[in-house]
Every structure is written in C-alpha cells, then in structure tokens.
Design goal:
By secondary structure, the protein is of the alpha/beta class. About 35% of the residues lie in helices and about 15% in strands. The chain has a six-stranded mixed β-sheet with strand order 5-4-3-2-1-14. The chain has a six-stranded mixed β-sheet with strand order 6-7-8-9-12-13. Strands 17-16-15-18-19 form a five-stranded parallel β-sheet, sandwiched between helices. Helix 6 packs across helix 12, helix 9 packs across helix 10 and helix 14 crosses helix 16.
Length: about 550
C-alpha cells in the first residue's frame, strides 16, 4: 500500500478554494500511484474555525465540500477533516471529524475524542468528544484513524484526559495509524511533536503517518513538518517546514524502517521563516498587497522591515522616517541605509514642527508643568497619525514593530507606536530580536552593524536610553520568560536568585499594562505563550498588584 501526505495551506471559510486544492492534490497523488491521500484536520473549512462553526450555512458548505471531495475518491482513498453534526440532542452540536472516502463516497467517519481547551485551543466550545472507536479496513489493511490531540495521551499519561483513543483502536489490531493534525508552530515544538509520535510508536508498534497544516491563520502559524515514523522509532521522513508538499510512501518500506531523517530546527531560522510566512499569509488571505511602517533606526523596526521585504518584496513595502529634535543623526542615517540596502522606498517626514504646534496649543493648559511622558507620548502619537494617514491615502497596511518585552511592560504608546494592523514581532523578546537580526545578517550585512551595537532608545527626550526606565533586557527578558511562558509567581522567580524588588516591579508592570495589550493588533505567535488568544488575563485583576 502507498500512502500520500498532502501538507496543504488551507484558508478558513474558503470552501471552493480549499476543495479545488484538495482535488488537485488528490489527482497528483493518484498519478504518483498512491492508494490513500491524507489531508489535515478540518481541511474543508480551515483551522481555527472559531465561531463560524455556529452558523448552519457554514456547516452546510462544509458538508457539501465533503460530498464533492468524495466524488474525487475514485481509484484512490481520501482522508480529510471536516465538522460533522451530532445527531443526538444531548451534547455539543458538532464533532471534529476525520472522513475516510473511497469508491466515490464516504465510507467511514471517526470523530476526535480529545478536545484541547488550553492556550490557543478552545475546541470544547464547539465539539462533542468521540466515545466510539473503530478501525478502517481498506485493501486488506487495518487503519487507526486519529485526529491531532488524540495521540497526545499515550497510555492515559496526560492528566488532561481520561481516555486514550489509540488504546481503544488497538483492540482491533491496526496495521498502521494515520493522524490528521492542525498543530500550531512554536519554535521549540518540533522536537516535542517527534517525541509524542515516538511514544505512540513505542507503545503500539505500528507505523505512523502524521500530516499537519501549513500556513497562517491571523496570529496562528502552522509550519507543516508532517512526519512518517517507522515502528523502530526512527523518523522515516519529515516534510519541509513552511511550504506545501505532497509525498508518497510505501507502507512496507516504512514498516521495515532503518531510515532516519530529521530536519534542522535552529531557533532563529525557524522564527524568521515563521514570521515571513505569517506576514505573507495574513496579507494574501485578507486580500492586502502593500505594507508601511515607521523606520526609526532602531533594531525593532529594522527587523520588521527585513521580514516585510522578504515576505512581500521590497517594492510592496514603504517606510517613513520621522525624526524629531531628539532623533540622533546616526539613527536617521542608519534607517536610510537599511532602506537603501533593501531597495525599499522611503520618505522623510520631520515631526518637530508638528510637535511644536501641539506644544503651543497645550502651553496655556500645561503652564508650569515639567516635560514628562506626556510630551514623549505626543511624539509617538504624531508618528502614529502620519503613518495612518499614509496608510489611508495609499492603501498600505501599517505594521506594528513592538517587541514582546515592550508589550509585556507597557513600554509603548497606545494610538502611537502601538498602532498597526498586524504586530509582527510582538512574540519576540528584545534579546531575541537582536539574535534574529544577527541571523538576518549571516550571509552579509543587511541591517547596518551600528543598529545592532547601539544602546536601545526610544529617542523621545535628550540622551534617552531604554535602560533609564527598564532593567537591562538581558535580565528583564529572563524574568518575563519565567512569568509569561512558565507561569512562575514572584516567590518562585525570586528563589532563582533574581532581585526581589526588580521581580515585583517587572511583574507589576506586566499586570497593570494588560489594558494596552487588549487594544493592540493581532500578534504573530512563535512561542508557546504569546500575548493574545492564548493568554487571557483580566484587565482589573489585583494579583501581584
């Protein structure tokens, strides 16, 4: 038997486009001699589908896609994911299902049992868990068909769940397992996924064919990286990251094993490629073509610009340089040099006169009061207004350039530098931004070295440095990682040797700035715990205050 994995980029709600793509890949798999072609979880409608699932018409279109796809299952079997109506009054209205189609019709449907409801996942909001499990018999082989999370409770070791679907399916002695998934990217998730699949192989002694989504859906990025694993626990093949791919495998060869393939998983290469894909898909799927951002001469806007230029091409990105009386000459020169290195068009729009106009307007009301964050924020908001004006006039979508460290502690101005339609590096800590910039320069200087070596500064007052207001990023980011990614409280973090006053100050800044993050643009997710849909905190909570 020959099995094809079709790692495809699915668009939420684009039923005709998704169906056309799956039919085309089915024909290609058939041409390559495959007996079965496998598509990812919820491949008719896309993932995460969210509240579209509450529309009857949406489910009707998903059902229609399944029926159309089944017609293509002639001379080949098709496995694909789609929502299914629950015929029982009790329970949720839908199942998250895997369809097995052959001979032009749906032969069998297996529902998903383990419904993740943590971090970015909220499947129990919509789906009823499966309670029945049956293998599929096709061409003399017995197939265990599972969906994503169903393989993440090997032998009931995961305390989130009370059932192990593969334990149930293995009672019917399958010859191999197919798992269709929608597993989002995080830079350290690839090795964990291999570990989980290997644990399944060790327990059940059967080959595993695992197919994952590729592409981005707003903040969630899916890297692909589909896996074929032999019963000996070796990765027989791993499909490429961040690109569509179809490959066909001989079941007997996979079962025999002896081959070990593994893709490199270098952190900053993965983050770079994920963000480029996230940008490209967000614009393509929303129907956008051109981007704009403010280029300050600092590291954050520099990295964002390189990503945008690589995602869209230099001709589809525009930048504004908006120096004030506090901007250093080298910042303007660095920004200009970067734009020229990339071939990106730029405009220089000085804001000093605009700032003085605000200053004069407010002088009668602010008389006798010292220069403070108010005047700093005015400068940031002038820049935000200018960027939005260019965005409206020319149809360029504004990219936000805030990093995760700044987002965490509120080191940004609402309606100023926090403006934007998409936050590109909001899940990348400041120290990681520098590492990402170094990766971008690995084959030659793209970002001027002076941008990488100068102390970070917002340049909103004379001789300002970020370290005037914040701990050094090398320390700050470590504390933030413990609190945000690892959910460690102040006592646990202090016990690791961090200064108590610093820890309490940083954690308090994170909590009191929740209101800002609720108002920011969607953030491309590259870590296990990004701000946004996967981290739900109350704005007015008193914890640690």
């Amino acid at each position: 038997m020959r099995i094809a994995l079709a790692q495809v980029n699915i668009h939420v709600g684009n039923f005709s486009g998704n169906l056309e793509k799956m039919v085309a890949y089915t024909e290609e798999a058939k041409r390559l001699g495959a007996d079965i072609v496998c598509f990812p979880e919820l491949s008719t409608c896309g993932y995460p589908t969210r509240d579209f699932l509450e529309f009857d018409d949406f489910i009707r279109q998903a059902d229609a896609s399944v029926q159309q796809l089944a017609k293509a299952a002639v001379g080949i079997a098709i496995v694909a994911g789609s929502p299914t109506r629950n015929p029982r009054i009790e329970g949720k209205d839908l199942f998250n299902s895997a369809y097995f189609m052959a001979d032009g019709e749906v032969k069998q449907v297996q529902h998903k049992a383990l419904l993740p409801t943590y971090d970015v996942f909220d499947e129990y909001r919509y789906f009823e868990p499966a309670r029945e499990f049956h293998i599929i018999e096709y061409k003399g082989k017995r197939i265990a068909l599972t969906i994503c999370e169903d393989i993440w409770n090997v032998g009931n070791e995961n305390p989130l769940y009370t059932i192990c679907p593969m334990d149930e399916l293995c009672k019917e002695q399958p010859d191999f397992m197919i798992n269709i998934s929608a597993s989002p990217f995080a830079y350290d998730h690839g090795d964990e996924r291999i570990h989980v699949i290997r644990a399944n192989v060790a327990r059940y002694k059967v080959p595993v064919f695992y197919v994952n989504h590729v592409g981005a859906q707003t903040e969630l990025i899916f890297e692909g990286g589909s896996i074929v694993m032999s019963p000996d626990g070796n990765v027989f093949d791993e499909l490429p990251y961040f690109e569509e791919c179809l490959r066909v495998y001989d079941l007997e060869e996979v079962a025999e094993g002896g081959r070990h393939v593994a893709l490199p998983k270098e952190k900053y290469a993965l983050i770079h490629d994920a963000l480029v894909l996230g940008l490209r898909d967000y614009f393509a799927k929303v129907g956008l073509k051109k981007a704009i951002l403010g280029l300050s001469g600092g590291i954050d806007s520099a990295v964002t610009l390189v990503l945008a230029a690589r995602a869209f091409g230099a001709g589809n990105v525009r930048v504004l340089l908006m120096p004030s009386q506090f901007s250093s000459d080298h910042s303007v020169n660095d920004a200009r040099q970067l734009a020229e290195n990339l071939g990106v068009p730029y405009d220089i729009v000085p804001i000093e006169s605009v700032y003085h106009a605000y200053e004069g307007l407010l002088a009668p009301h602010f008389s006798g009061l010292p220069f403070n964050i108010t005047e700093e924020n005015i400068q940031a908001r002038i820049r935000g207004m200018l960027l939005m004006a260019f965005s409206n006039k020319f149809g360029h979508i504004l990219l936000n350039t805030s990093n995760k460290s700044e987002m965490a502690v509120g080191y940004g101005t609402l309606y100023g530098d926090m403006c934007g339609g998409l936050c590109v590096i909001g899940d990348v800590y400041k120290t990681e931004v520098f590492e990402l910039a170094a990766f971008m320069n690995k084959d030659g200087e793209v970002i001027p070295t002076s941008i990488l070596t100068k102390p970070p500064s917002a340049e909103l007052r004379p001789n300002q440095k970020d370290s005037d207001s914040l701990p050094e990023y090398a320390i700050l980011d470590q504390v933030l990682y413990q609190y945000i990614e690892l959910q460690q409280g102040p006592k646990e973090i202090i016990a690791q040797g961090y200064d108590e006053a610093l820890v309490r100050r940083v954690l308090r800044l994170v909590n009191i700035n929740e209101f800002k993050r609720h108002q920011t643009a969607p953030i491309l997710r590259v870590s296990r715990k990004a701000f946004g849909m996967g981290r739900r905190m109350p704005i007015e909570g008193k914890y640690l205050s």
